[in-house]
Amino acid sequence: MKAIMVMFDTLNRHFLPNYGCDWIHAPNFERLSHKTVTFDNAWVGSMPCMPARRDLHTGRLGFLHRSWGPIEPFDDSLPEILKNNGVHTHLVTDHYHYFEEGGANYHTRYSTWEFNRGQEWDPWKGEVKDPEKPEFYPGAERQKNRQNWVNRKYMDKPEKQSIANTFDHGLEFMRTNSEEDNWFLQIETFDPHEPYFTHEKHKSLYPHEYEGKHIDWPEYRPVNETDRKAIEHVRYEYAADLSLCDEHLGRVLDLMDELNLWEDTMLIVCTDHGFLLSEHDWWGKNRMPLYNEIAHIPLFMWDPRCEIKEERRQSMVQFIDFSPTLLEYFEIEPPSNMMGKSLKGTLFSDTPVRETALFGVFGGQVNITDGRWMYMRGPVTPKNTPLFQYTLMPTHLAHTFDVEELQDIQLQEPFSFTKGCRTMKIASGPVHDSIQHVFGTLLFDLENDYEQSTPVEDESAEQRMKDLLVTEMRRCEAPQEQFQRLGLQ
Fold it and tell me: Do the Cβ atoms of 54 and 69 come closer than 8 Å?
């Protein structure tokens, strides 16, 4: 058996024709729905990038215990388990966070891997002289990043972009190994993550009237643009990036057709999370509540054992379910620490595997949905304390913890998933890029208000969701101070 996972970063399901968008140019995503099963009720887990990938490896939620960081010594790892059971695992990616200190030991779990340079502010090409830059839209600080403008010079054609190289190498692996058995290929691209760097080939798919200053990299902040054309322009820039992704997805589908891989190869097309593109008057993720545009994700699957396609599934599934799904497919028993469930039954006959989805960002609101209600529980104290990180790998996104953070390390007795290891217990300072705690607690009725335009007050529904939240947090072995922080004691 063989399996391919195509993972995009920041793929907003509300921009896909598969989920009702009627203006986006994404013919290969439309084609994908004819080749696979489309899931209508898929949700994120831990956010953002590397916390999500830790969930993917371990099949369990990590955001209640620590923020951004590497695979821990006690963590189970999907590609490593496959590798140790005779399945060749290959990662092809341009997601440069794998190669910073906060993610530097994920790729080593695969049998082989390839990295394509140049996304965002990846420290790739070295130029001492400042690059030429356009005149920027006011307040667009991220897009002024010097390294990003150095990198763009070396990707002056669509075929030179890092996403193109990533899919080139993924297709090379498929061709080389199409006649072989027992392999898992993960093709993972940073696109359509911001900045929305595309060329005229994809920009021209969305003609519009904006002639203002450069803006293709929104800050994570409230929408304060007074020019509606500027807002529309950013959404079109995202759409162009999505169409770029669509083109390369089509290359995978073409090669699966050519090599007839549909007969013996599972295909999963997914993302780690979505993004707000002016909805709820916000740009970005993390800093605001994880509204449906962020947390409700697209998912497509093909399993050659059942050959079901052009169908939809309504049962609730979650990012942590991918690991046990792939292990079951390769006939490997998942470790007992995995909280996710195999989606075989859901794929075959829409059999439910869970009643709720728990998700969040470390130190932010803790969220739970049962499909009808969305409950976003915020902290009860203005300082969002107490809050501790539990780790043996004290790193943030791009660097180790500062020595000041390590002056008062405590030792925590083992959790069941740490396999007898005690971890460091480190008081957490301000959480990177998150001010979710200022929004308090919110309850939404998704059945009558999917857009989450108006929080509701319903004591009965809130109590029910609060009870479900406590149950799931306990199942995750959430530290006691998380209950204290959220006023759930």
Answer: yes
